[in-house]
Amino acid sequence: MIELKWHKLSTKKKKYLSTANSALLLQSIPMTKRRVKEFLNNIDCKTELLILGVVGQNDTFVPGMEDSMQFRLATLDEVKQQLISLFKSNPKLKEQLEKKIVLLDYSYEVGKYVIRELKPKQIFWVNGSWRFSLHLRQEWWESYDLGVKIKRISPFANDNEAKSRAKKITAENLNWLTKKWKVNLDSDFAVDELKEFVQDISKLSWDWTGQTGACLVHEISGKNQTNSDSKKSDDSSRFEVITWSHNVVVPFESYIMHKGALKELHRTPPGENIELTQTNHAEVAAVLRAAEQGLNFENIDLVTSKFPCPVCARILADSPISRVYYSEGYSNGLGMMVLKGAGKSFLQI
Ligand SMILES: [Zn+2]
């Protein structure tokens, strides 16, 4: 097992590495020990080099997913210790693979150069290790242009491991959110606080193709309460948070990390074929949560980090919610048409 640093590699060495029949596992969130063992056992015997890319020295989270513990990147030490422990208990595996393994330390943004210069014969991507769909990333196109065999893999060996990570991380994330906001549903929030609050809630989403947060609020004071036609929010308004949610993957949060995201399997362009998802969007998830809790929907507004998509807009159109506060727009204008048609008002915050 050798360790290399990308920024210290000479052109000669890169050239030498590119001549080998190599497999590259790109930057990754942590895989379970059982999954690593399974992965190593399935490596094609013709593979001369197995390059394990590690970016955890330079980036703590998948860029753009900061503070989302489910998207924390594995560190070099973590990967090394896992391999040492596996080889200790599996002498046969050690004999077959130890000399073939290269731990490559590089930073996330140079991934496409790593592919271009090392020309691996096969690339493995661990689900959940990038932001947005994989086929929207340059690294993916780089592999596609080179004609490299691409495989997306799970970081878990089975459903139980996936569920157990989801349970542990969800608790950690909730702890972080509660500490920051001291989420006390009796306290009141100003508009700018709600904007930051839904942004933070969105970080609890496990769907890396889109993270959204939403909450249902009741206006306790301010002009918005009396002026439902206003297009601008009143900064002095105060709100009580009734309930909240984020994009929820079904049937369990780590499901797409384990089984793969439909959007990626179908190479869906952004904003299209929105039915290809295994996620309930935050707006609908918040409404479901409120219904589960038997909450009263009277005089309730929705606050969301992203304008509702057409599917959510249809559900909201048929709900007693009369006003939608949103932070980020949505490229497809259909949602807006649906809400307008239903007489709902919306305000950007
Ligand atoms: Zn939606």
Description:
With 349 residues, this protein is α/β, with parallel strands linked by helices. It is built from 13 helices and 14 strands. It has helices at residues 11-18, 33-41, 76-89, 91-97, 111-118, 138-146, 159-181, 191-202, 255-259, 262-265, 282-292, 310-317, 334-341, and strands at residues 2-5, 22-25, 49-54, 101-105, 122-126, 149-153, 188-190, 213-221, 238-246, 248-249, 279-280, 301-306, 323-328, 345-348. It has a six-stranded parallel β-sheet. A six-stranded mixed β-sheet has the order 7-9-8-12-13-14. Strands 10-11 form a two-stranded antiparallel sheet. Helix 2 links the parallel strand 2 and strand 3 (49-54). Helix 3 packs across helix 4 and helix 5 (111-118) runs parallel beside helix 6 (138-146). The longest helix has 23 residues, at 159-181. The model has no long low-confidence stretch (mean pLDDT 91). The structure holds zinc ion. Zinc ion binds next to helix 12.
Mean pLDDT: 91
Class derived from helix and strand content: alpha/beta
Principal-axis shape equals elongated
| Bound ligands, each once | zinc ion
Radius of gyration: 23 Å
Uncertain regions spanning at least 5 consecutive residues: none
* Total DSSP E strands: 14
The proportion of strand residues reads 15-25%
Calculate the terminal CA-CA distance, rounded to whole Å.
52 Å
* Helical residues, percent: 25-40%
- In the sheet with the most strands, the strands line up as 1-4-3-2-5-6
| Separate helix tally | 13
Task: Give helix and strand order, one letter per element, not per position.
Answer: EHEHEHHEHEHEHEHEEEHHEHEHEHE
Task: Describe the sheet with the most strands.
Answer: 6 strands, parallel
